[in-house]
Amino acid sequence: MKNIIILGSTGSIGVQTLEVIDKLKDEFSVLAISCGLNIELFKKQIEKYKPKFVCVKNSEHAKELEGLYPDLNVLYSESGLIELAKLRAYDILVVATSGIVSVRAVLEAIKNKKTIALANKETLVMAGDIVTKAAKENNVLILPIDSEHSAILQCLNNLANPYAKRLWITASGGPFLNNSRDEMKKFSANDALKHPKWNMGKKITIDCATLVNKGLEVIEAHHLFNFDYENIKVVIHPQSLVHSFVEFIDGSYLAQIGNPSMHIPIQYALTYPKRLEGIESDSFNLFNKKMEFFEPDYKKFPLLALTLECAKLGGVMPAILNAANEAAVYKFLNGEIKFLDIERIVFNAVEKYDNIKTPALDEIFEIDKRVRSDLEK
Fold it and tell me: Is the pTM of the predicted complex or chain greater than 0.90?
């Protein structure tokens, strides 16, 4: 039995990870969980899974849990996540947090030589060079939970497959695929949150509406699989049945196909390289399925083009773009700006700040903080 730590257990990925563990209860045990502010759900998870350690965002919630569960080891804040990562008695760290709070915890877990099951984009978008270098030095696996990267991993079969030529990352196109730019000007947050295929958190759902999410996934794929950016392509696939595919030097393509469910990539990361019967076993019906593929419209979705440009520039440019995008998305969700204002804010931020080609981790965190602070003014 493998011991699991889940950072972000009350979010969409965290909840679905626990559902996978419920199905495979003879394979996994939950050693520790963490949450942000959804403390009521967190209490239910504590009572059901009985972890030995927990971590919350602030000291007030920590004191509340200490009063309710006197035998529980309660930590809080980013330092608490790092302490969880330092524990010896676990096998896999599931990183299902949003934002940058878990980046240092991931690096600590890598030093601790623990397998990383990664759903957090910021870890590789902001600090991909640093994280992958540490993983290589410590012989640690970083297994993706994203459906697209999981699909690529499954198709490659070998992380250093010498015959792979290109990676093709599929995108549903989001809720506005068939709308014009003029129509997109009028859409509210509620409109943007109506993703046609996937059930995800609010921030990533908005990123799917602008297609910036696919650019971020290209950055992740570059670091996970060590492919040049020129050999990673985005393709629109509205049906979300093909979760990505790999092109080989002989002209063959291998695709991973299945229902648009996060349970599959979560389970594959937890059981890698084995496969076990799980929640989605026998759920996919191949018959009467339509599959279409289109080239992205970079003029209609300019943030995708900008993200790919920042990826190639490297240094702190992906961190600048990521920080500006996240700040803009939350402004949109809070009703402070219009949908297309997200683009304006991100483009302005990318033009405003200078690049640092080989930044240290502290420099990455500093530019992230500065971009967010400037956008709050």
Answer: yes
**25: burial class by Cβ within 10 Å (0-12, 13-18, 19+)?**
exposed
Of residues 254, 287, 106, the one with CA closest to residue 166: 254
pLDDT along the chain (377 residues), means of 10: 97 96 96 96 98 97 97 97 98 94 97 97 96 98 96 87 95 94 93 82 91 97 97 96 96 94 96 93 88 96 98 97 96 96 97 96 96 91
Is there a contact between 36 and 57 (Cβ–Cβ < 8 Å)? yes
Report the sign of the C-alpha dihedral through residues 150, 258, 169, 353, in that order: negative
Q: Structural domain boundaries of the chain?
A: 2-120, 149-376
**What number does CATH give the domain 149-376?**
1.10.1740.10
Assigned CATH class of 2-120 = alpha beta
3 state SS of 333? helix
